[in-house]
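Supplementary notes (optional reading)

For those who missed the lab, this is the record we used. Protein: Transcriptional regulator, IclR family. Length: 274 residues.
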Amino acid sequence: MKNKPAYSIESVDHALRLAVLLQQEGPLGVTEAARRLDVARSTAHRLLAMLVYRDFAVQGTDRRYAAGAVLGPAARVEPVAELRRAALPHLRALVERTGETANVMVLLGTQIRMVATVECDQALRVGDREGRLLPAHLASGGRALLARLPRDELDARYDGGEPDGVTREQVERVVRQTRRRGVALNDGGTETGLTAVGFPIGAPGREPAAALSVAMPTARYHRRLLPELVAALADAAGAVDRDLRAAAGTTPGAAAENSVQQNELSSGRRRASR
């Protein structure tokens, strides 16, 4: 598993995390940056000033900082930021219920980006993955989301050559396997020694397409754990979706979509228990 190096330079790590936040979620003030990094306001100010100096950030007239020329414009700022806010309490509950690290991620083309991680407190654990990009066909949450896409959308994402070194045939094999199992499982696909189970948030077609995952050392995983992990993920995903709907005020049609989602969950739970 790829965890934080023991010799990591904290200031560099903070600067890189800030750059990811600006690109992924959009403008930040100094106070918000300090809170997200858990550092003093003066430290956050110095880090942002250095990012501005190197063109990783720009400061607007409102004194907030945004992604600079090196990073390019932030994409889908509000939905991703709102997703993170809605998901964090449920990630913490998921960690408490499963005893393992939990993540929320979004689908971007043929990759997924980790939006937030809550680590468990076990000595041997999967570490923080926030901000990382991974091939969607390898990550558990990416597999869960790809398995719900219609064929024409899969074609649109993967017909431009071989992104991430994967062929269309490999992607189709992963999608078929995930649909057949009813569970999105990553068993060493992204990192040796890591196993993760993924589950989509909300009904198909929501934007941005998002999923939850629970990740653990492979040494601690056994297939008999799958039914409980899937049940925990399904409950958490349903809670995140309800909170996102409540924040957006989108209640019309929610009952119908929730019914579709519950059918999917029930089917996945039955297959996971086999």
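If you only remember one thing from this example: The mean pLDDT is 85.
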